[in-house]
Design a protein that fits this description.
By secondary structure, the chain is mainly α. The chain has a domain of 202 residues. The protein has 13 helices and no strands. The longest helix is centred in the last third of the chain and has 29 residues.
Amino acid sequence: MRIPSLGVGLLMGSADAVPGISGGTVALVIGIYQRLIGSIAIVLSYPRERDFEKLRDPLTFLLPLGFGMAAAYWLVSRLLVGPAEAPGLLLQPGSAVLCYGFFSGLVAASLRGPWRRITAPNREHTVLAMIGAATTLIVLDQSFMKSAQADWMLFIGGALALTAMLLPGISGALVLVMLGQYTVVAGAVHDLRLVPLMWFCSGGLVATLAVVPVLRRLLTEQPDRTLAVMTGVMAGSLRALWPWKENYDMHTGDFSPLGVGTNWPEVLTVALLGALVIIVLEHLARRETNRSA
């Protein structure tokens, strides 16, 4: 049975709210990924072609999908972050350690996705992945990543997160966690703080107009090297998802990692569960790809 675009949006929005799961992967599993990218491309071409008739089908598809994504993101991120007066699971130490364990499992298992898409992995790709991982670790350790929220960080977060959301295997929410903006953006949504949301959406608009076309060109002309770097960045991001921390909101205290806690069996269990989710999604995505071929 074909899922209506509103339903697809609900599924993609739920995925995009969880660090480690990509809405692009969900679109690929359902079989609408090519239509999604094609519809966005037609909308972006409108200022040049001025052909409103060509917009009818893409907008009929994209508008309900976008509404579904927004509604699902609001619901899921409210559970994870919540408004200021009712902190969510990610901001409570007892549940946050398990959430980060689950996210770590999601991302660790997701590393196979972009790496598997490399035609013939070799030493160069390994080196590029290591450079991507090392660069990510260095960036995550910088002082500006641990400071109070800044508007320019929200802008960058919007640009990078929206780019990631459109790529199978790359999580937009994970990008926000890496930048320390996940709880900021989700909190702004629930508290209806318009200024942070305007900065974030401005970054997303820039990504739609500039970053996404460049990334699509890289994936077309240098796909293997680009995927190798992406794999490394994802591997380096695991530092931001380490379950045991001094504090679970980097803007209110020390976000530094701690040693393994006594609750490691529970954390390991949820991490394995997260890995299983990705394995199942990848299996479904491969089956859909083979069916479409």
